[in-house]
Amino acid sequence: MLGALCLALAPQSRAAGDAANGERLHESCLSCHGTGIYLPPKRKIKTLAALRKETARWGDYYNPKFTRAEIDDLVAYLNRDFYKFP
Fold first, then answer.
1. DSSP assignment letter at 7
2. Which of 77, 71, 69, 62 is nearest to 19 (CA)?
3. pLDDT (tens digit per residue) in 41-70
4. What is the C-alpha to C-alpha distance for residues 84 and 70, in angstroms, rounded to an integer?
5. CA nearest 51: which of 31, 76, 68?
6. Where are the domains of the chain?
């Protein structure tokens, strides 16, 4: 039981989620910025964990906030199309 709880609380090391839904959700992000911030030299995110953290941080600005599943979807989309972390 404790092991399952630790796994549930541990940061995910891969981009789990529905990238197609993440792409749809990303439309709301485009009202503030384009996709250029995901590409060098403007890219600041260096790891998948940092991408997840930053996506969750910005997801708090929306009303209603992005759910954990929506954040997973956004991370899957951003990683698939821009970051390509393992």
1. H
2. 77
3. 889 999 999 999 999 999 888 888 999 999
4. 19
5. 76
6. 15-83
Cis peptide bond prior to 86, omega within 30° of 0: no
Amino acid at residue number 27: E
Which of 44, 52, 41 lies closest to 78 in space, CA to CA?
52
pTM for the full predicted model: 0.79
5-24: b (≥16 Cβ within 10 Å) or e = eeeeeeeeeebebbbebbbe
Q: Tokens 């709301």 correspond to what residue?
A: 28
The DSSP letter of residue 67 is P
- Measured on CA atoms in the order 50, 75, 33, 58, is the torsion positive or negative? negative
